[in-house]
Design goal:
heterodimer; A: 12 helices; B: about 325 residues; alpha/beta; Rossmann fold; Alpha-Beta Plaits; 6-stranded mixed sheet; 4-stranded antiparallel sheet; 14 strands
Chain lengths: ~260, ~325
């Protein structure tokens, strides 16, 4: 095994022997299931009302269930992912294993990559379990799979970005609570930038600020629009966050 | 194996180590001796490429710590002050993880693991979570971690801290057994440990090397760095001057109350007989003449307590530094 695979395996093992991943995973799946249930029941009620008025009903599950669900999931990820990422570097520093890792024959790139990928795989696993929702719905109804899949692509990219931000926050401190709150703060800040951007409207400043927020890019994917601009945004933001994490981890050695 | 040239580490205004120079030969065991905060850990962190030096150059096994850190890291086994263990893993899992991280695989890994488990007596705890182990066991797991890839160089930061006396002896025996095949640097603030285990001792204080020698030579020197306490009831005005003229006497200090003198003599020279004869023939009323030999502890405390007046710690200055403190045993250098 290469050093990065070794680290990745160890990180995953650490997650699965601690209760955090089970608790966070259970809560995540519960909330997602509950949200899906609410939107589906709500859609059903609407369908019955429409049927009473018009005699027939054709509701759009894509609009009424999936778009709502994907929009809500942003917020769920904002809460859940910082809890998973807060330990990444903070715990190593607190328990004094950081020095061990940094004096092992593994490069800093590999450390940052191994840690990022471990949480990302965990997240993909949780996201994979939510796939039961569209699969179950597909048994009873017809909907367009394309926007559902782009929505999932959006979730994957958004999750990766959130994990990278969480990793950066964790590299900044040795206190896990602080790390979680710093990542909440950063993510909310970028969330709210979208609001500032729309306040400024169609001015150049407004456009730049809106572009900086992940909201607009994610919305496009949820609506089924796959635009290179949005993909470039996610990839470059992710790269920047991982780069900053690398720099921050490197600089802690100098202090 | 290790060559350190004039390394300095500054944290802002604070200088943690100042122009430290030393080297370590293959198979040698060297002790870094000094009080807490002397710069031992900082030096070790530079050698293990954890942090870069502000100035100076450190090479380990021929590789520069700044330029080829990965090559250096592959050849070093490092035990930091706090054993770097993951509490959520079992001892076996942890050692397997460390071994893989250092490039061991398959049968090599398995045999390395069983060798270290055997060597450090971890057999009974290998399936237990490290988080549930006592301090002593964690320290041993930390040592196993440093040894698992059989590195040519071992850097151990206070390896016997937290162990009980029996374990301390075991670990010292282990380190001794590594000498010859491995080069070892260990830091300690316990003097007997340095003398028991190491072939060479570097005394570091306030970030500077203040002495460097073999423990044998250090203690030999100390035995010979004689001081004689002399008490007279009727000292004359010229007593001090006449004492100074005795062959072999280097310094005479009027020590405390009248009639008390502290004489410093050349190495290997017993001046007591001559002094006694002089005191008696001069009728000074000799009541006490006592040899005061300095223990290693005395010198260590002296070296590390009064660092202000010391020569700055390059290697050249290091040996005479042993005899500093107003140059009492100046002849030794």
């Amino acid at each position: 095994m290469t050093p990065v695979n070794t680290l990745l395996a160890k990180e995953l093992r650490s997650y699965f022997v601690s209760p955090v991943v089970y608790v966070v995973g259970a809560v995540f799946l519960l909330i997602v299931g509950l949200l899906a249930y609410i939107y589906i029941v709500f859609t059903g009620v609407q369908a019955i009302q429409i049927m009473q008025v018009q005699g027939q009903s054709q509701v759009n599950l894509n609009d009424l269930v999936f778009r709502n669900l994907f929009s809500s999931l942003r917020f769920v990820l904002l809460i859940v992912l910082p809890i998973l990422t807060m330990r990444l570097f903070a715990e190593e520093k607190k328990l004094r294993t950081f020095e061990f890792l940094m004096t092992s024959p593994i490069s800093l790139n590999e450390i940052v990559a191994g840690k990022f990928v471990s949480v990302f795989l965990l997240f993909l696993g949780l996201l994979g379990l939510t796939g039961l929702i569209p699969l179950t719905l597909a048994l009873f109804s017809d909907f367009d799979w394309y926007p559902v899949l782009t929505g999932y692509l959006g979730l994957v990219l958004l999750g990766a970005l959130f994990i990278a931000v969480g990793g950066l926050a964790s590299a900044l401190t040795e206190n896990q609570i602080v790390a979680a709150f710093v990542s909440f703060g950063l993510l909310l800040f970028f969330w709210l930038l979208a609001g500032v951007g729309s306040l400024l409207g169609d001015t150049p400043a407004g456009q730049v600020i809106s572009y900086l927020s992940f909201m607009e890019h994610y919305d496009h994917l949820v609506r089924g629009l796959v635009d290179t601009r949005d993909l470039v945004y996610f990839v470059s933001a992710l790269t920047l966050m991982l780069f900053l994490t690398h720099r921050v981890v490197d600089s802690t050695r100098w202090k | 194996m290790i060559d350190v040239q004039q390394i300095t580490k500054r944290y802002g205004q604070h200088t943690a180590i100042d122009r430290v120079t030393f080297s370590l030969a293959k198979g040698e065991v060297l002790a870094f001796l000094g009080p807490n905060g002397a710069g031992k850990t900082t030096t070790m962190r530079i050698l293990t490429c954890f942090m870069p030096a502000t100035e100076g150059r450190a090479t380990v096994a021929g590789y520069d710590c700044l330029e080829q850190p990965l090559e250096v890291k592959r050849r070093i086994g490092y035990l930091p002050e706090t054993p770097p263990v993951y509490q959520e893993l079992t001892v076996g899992e942890y050692l397997r993880f460390v071994g893989r991280l250092r490039g061991l695989t398959g049968a090599t890994l398995t045999s390395a693991m069983s060798r270290e488990i055997e060597r450090l007596g971890l057999g009974s705890v290998q399936h237990r979570l490290i988080g549930n182990l006592s301090r002593g066991y964690r320290q041993r797991v930390g040592l196993a971690q440093a040894l698992i890839h059989d590195p040519p160089i071992l850097i151990l930061d206070e390896p016997t801290v937290g162990l009980d006396p029996k374990q301390i002896i075991e670990i010292r025996e282990l380190i001794k057994s590594l000498a010859g095949s491995h080069s070892v640097i260990l830091s300690t603030h316990i003097l007997p440990e340095a003398t028991a285990v190491c072939q060479r001792v570097v005394i570091i204080s306030g970030g500077r090397i203040v002495a460097e020698d073999t423990p044998d030579r250090l203690s030999t020197r100390l035995r010979h760095s004689e001081k004689v306490a002399l008490t007279l009831t009727r000292p004359a005005g010229d007593t001090e001057a006449r004492l100074r003229q005795v062959d072999g006497v280097l310094h005479v200090h009027a020590n405390g109350p009248t009639g008390h003198f502290l004489l410093e003599s050349q190495l290997g020279k017993d001046i007591r007989e001559e002094i006694a004869r002089l005191a008696v023939t001069s009728n000074w009323g000799l009541v006490e003449l006592k040899l005061i030999s300095m223990t290693l502890e005395d010198v260590f405390l002296k070296l590390t307590r009064h660092e202000e007046g010391l020569p700055h710690g390059s290697e050249q200055a290091a040996s005479p530094a042993l005899t500093m403190e107003s140059g009492k045993e100046g002849a030794s250098a």
